[in-house]
Design goal:
227 residues, Rossmann fold, 7-stranded mixed β-sheet, 9 helices, globular
C-alpha cells in the first residue's frame, strides 16, 4: 500500500493512538508549541504540512487564539477527520495535495510539520526544504517535529528497540499494532545532522535541534528578514 492508502485506512483511529505511539508525546509537541515565535494574542497565518487529522493545528490554535490555520495533507480521509475537528472554525482552510510534487499554497509567517516528511526519500526531503523556504515570509519560521535515523546502525538499533519496547508496553492489541507497524514500515527518516544541513542549504538561518529523545526530534530554522 502507498503512504496515502495507509493513512486513509487508519484515519478513524489515528488520534486515539498518538499518545501511546509517541513515548515523549507531551515534550515532543510541547516543544513545537514553545518554539512558535508569536505571542498568544498575535494574529498570524500558518501552514501545517502533512496535517493529518489536524492534531498539531488544534494544539496551536488552542494556545494562539487569533492564528489562522491552513492544513495540507495527501489523505482525503485524514482531512475529513480534520474537517470534523474544526467544524466550529469556518476560518480554517483545508488543502488536499501532495506537497512532494505540488507547489505549497500561499505564503506564511509560520510553517509546521509533524511526523510527516520522513515518508519522503532523502532527495524529496531536500527539495521540500527549498519549497518551505520559498513559501515562508521574510522573518518567518519553520518548525519540524520529526523522526531521525540513528547516525550508525548501532544507534538506530537502540532507537528501534526502545520504541518497540514502548509499543509492546502500551496496551495495544495485536490487531491494533499491525496497522501501526505497517505505517512505520513506510518510514524513511534521515539522521538529524542531515535534516539540519538540508535546512541550512535551503537558506534557513539559526537552524538548530531543540529537542531530541531517541529518534524523536524538534528542529527550527528562520527565513532571514530582507528589511
Amino acid at each position: 500500500m502507498s503512504v496515502k492508502e495507509l493513512f486513509d485506512a487508519g484515519a478513524m483511529e489515528y488520534d486515539a493512538g498518538r499518545r501511546r505511539v509517541i513515548f515523549c508525546f507531551d515534550t515532543f509537541y510541547g516543544t513545537l508549541l514553545d518554539l512558535v515565535p508569536f505571542s498568544p494574542q498575535a494574529p498570524f497565518a500558518f501552514l501545517d504540512l502533512g496535517a493529518g487529522t489536524g492534531l498539531v493545528s488544534a494544539l496551536i490554535l488552542a494556545r494562539f487564539s487569533k492564528a489562522r490555520a491552513h492544513l495540507l495533507d495527501i489523505s482525503e480521509k485524514m482531512m475529513a477527520q480534520a474537517r470534523r475537528r474544526f467544524a466550529h472554525r469556518p476560518d480554517v482552510q483545508f488543502y488536499i495535495g501532495d506537497y512532494a510534487r505540488e507547489d505549497l499554497p500561499g505564503t506564511y509567517s509560520l510553517i509546521v510539520s509533524a511526523m510527516s516528511i520522513h515518508h519522503l526519500e532523502d532527495s524529496g526531503k531536500q527539495m521540500l526544504m527549498q519549497k518551505i523556504f520559498s513559501a515562508l515570509e521574510p522573518g518567518g519560521a519553520f518548525i519540524h517535529a520529526e523522526l531521525a535515523l540513528g547516525t550508525t546502525p548501532a544507534t538506530e538499533r537502540h532507537y528501534q528497540q526502545h520504541w518497540q519496547r514502548h509499543l509492546e508496553a502500551s496496551g495495544f492489541t495485536a490487531d491494533e499494532l499491525a496497522p501501526i507497524r505497517e505505517r512505520m514500515a513506510c518510514d524513511r527518516p534521515a539522521p538529524i545532522e542531515h535534516q539540519l544541513a538540508w535546512m541550512r542549504e535551503a537558506g534557513f538561518a539559526d537552524v538548530d535541534c531543540f529537542f531530541k529523545h531517541y529518534n524523536f526530534t524538534v528542529s527550527m530554522g528562520t527565513k532571514p528578514d530582507q528589511s
